[in-house]
Amino acid sequence: MTDIVLGASNEGASAAIDLEELLASRLLVQGNSGSGKSHLLRRLLEQCAGLVQQVVIDPEGDFVTLAERFGHIAIDAADYGETEIAGVAARVRQQRASVVLNLEGLEVDAQLRCAGTFLNGLFDAPRELWYPLLVVVDEAQLFAPAAAGEVNDEARRVSLGAMTNLMCRGRKRGLAGVIATQRLAKLAKNVAAEASNFLMGRTFLDIDMLRAADLLGMERRQAEQIRDLERGQFLALGPALARRPKLMRIGTVETGTRGATPSLSPLPTFTEEDRQSLLTRMPVASPVAQAPRRAEPVEELLSRLPTAAIEPPPPEQPDLLETMDAAALADAVMADIVADEDARYRPASALYQDFTLRCRMQGALRPPHDLAGFSRALALARAGLFSADLAEPAMAEALRASADVPEDMLGVFMLIARAAHLGAPCPTDDAVALVYGTHSTGRVRRMLGYMESRELVAFSTDFRGRRTATIPRLGWSTAPSSDGDTLLDRLAGAGGS
After folding, report:
1. Residue where one domain finishes, among candidates 307, 328, 348
2. When you count CB atoms within 10 A of the terminal residue's CB, does the N or C end of the chain come out lower?
3. Sheet of strand 242-250: strand arrangement
4. Which parts of the sequence belong to the Helicase HerA central domain (predicted)?
């Protein structure tokens, strides 16, 4: 569990949000102008800046100050075209760079089209790039309006579709939506309804208070307390925050906005001469042609993304991988992940961030595997095979025989091969499902049927319904499957890891 401290509760204890749970369950922040929404978002972004990749959709240019302190890349959307923005989004996903998309210089219609194009570019990334990504959208009611307004219908359709994809289908692609809005009533319901975590700030309109109370599971007579919240106070609820509505006050931040909060200042004193000068007719100046602002070439922006995405380790800090066996470190971390019940059925792309984080906690500045290597090692680890096992001649031969086995079926093939080598019973569908990373036994049977059609494995069933598996290219066969005598028991008895 990775807790990010947002502030303090009413009792003075620290109030935190579980980052890993947030990535799986999304967040909705609501509050009138001046309630502290942007401050809350800035606190969240600052606290988890080094833990997860971030993308901020910023309609007012408030978050570009993150660039100097935390290394985010500020993208001025007004300088680029639609095709270029889509290319930048794809490169951001590939290089895992944290960016702020500044929409300040665009008209509302252009803001919607640009945000929709950028979000769709993140959403359409290929499967191997589905790393965890925190996507923060400020003023979400602009990009996912509840009703058609004065904006162009096409721009609204593109933006609303992208926001719906982010909140409804983004989780499987590693996208964790964090959306903030001034008014719940103006935010599309199908977008707001997908959030499981809520931080509700001060609001005054009855319709917004009632919707906020409904989302928090409060009785309507309790909704009045939302009107009494102070600036920076939020009611929190959700699996990543609290099981019951909890009041918290957001802590301080390290960066600020480019503008200043309006404050009272003394008015100037005018003399009679000053008053008369205000009424004096001024000559009309001839228009002076202004040189158009030169946009940063998109090639230059794209070239900055890879270097900003990965910070080099401090030269004075030795990398643990230089002083210990990388395979031993990978095995130790992989064993912890396989033993974690919460990670049992999660895909490799979602677990890779956890793997790299665990490696850093062990002292390694860089992970022993890239994503492709991690996916392969995870499949083998789920089958009970680590470095020492793969060094055995029999398992090395089985691994060579798996050269044309599809990558996602490698773990299952090696599980069956190891059982056949040890003379253990044929793995059950449940055991195969665990290695394959699915709850569906139907999917398992289809996968085994495919492997048999490719002559990777041959199955036979006796009259008692017991299944035997044979690896034709190795000439190895398992014992018949039997109730109460599981593959894992036999492997443990044989001394396997």
Report:
1. 307
2. N
3. 14-18, 3-9, 242-250, 233-238, 197-200, 27-30, 175-181, 133-137, 53-58, 99-102, 73-76
4. 9-82
* 240 shares a domain with 332: no
| pLDDT for position 319 | 44
Has residue 268 been placed in a domain? no
CA torsion, ordered 301, 169, 447, 461, to nearest 10 deg: 160
In the block, residue with structure tokens 């095995």: 331
Tokens of 391: 């060094």
Scored b (16 or more CB within 10 A) or e, 267-286 reads eeeeeeeeeeeeeeeeeeee
What's the chain's average pLDDT? 81
8 A C-beta contact, residue 109 and residue 149: no
| Residues recorded for the chain | 497
- φ, ψ of residue 479 in degrees (nearest 5): -75, 160
DSSP per residue over 202-238, as a string? ----HHHHHHHHHHHT--GGGTHHHHTPPTTEEEEEE
* Parallel/antiparallel/unpaired status of strands 53-58 and 133-137: parallel
State the Cα–Cα distance between residues 249 and 163, nearest whole angstrom.
Answer: 28
- pTM beyond 0.85: the answer is no
Q: What is the mean pLDDT of residues 21-37?
A: 88
Q: Tell whether 204 and 343 lie within a shared domain.
A: no
Q: CB-based burial of residue 2 (10 Å sphere; 0-12 exposed, 13-18 middle, 19+ buried)?
A: middle
Which residue has 């800046």 as its token pair?
49
Handedness of CA 153, 158, 163, 168 (dihedral sign): positive
CATH number reported for the structural domain that contains residue 126 in this entry? 3.40.50.300
Q: How many structural domains comprise the chain?
A: 2
Question: What residue numbers bound the domain in which 451 lies?
Answer: 320-493
Higher pLDDT, 228 or 170: 170
Residue with tokens 């080598």: 421
Q: Measured between alpha carbons, how far is 388 from 465 in angstroms, rounded to an integer?
A: 35
Indicate if 302 and 324 belong to the same structural domain: no
Q: How large is the average pLDDT for residues 89-94?
A: 91
What tokens were used for 43? Answer: 């606190």
Q: What is the pLDDT of residues 135-179, one digit of tens each?
A: 999 999 899 988 877 778 888 899 999 999 999 888 889 999 999
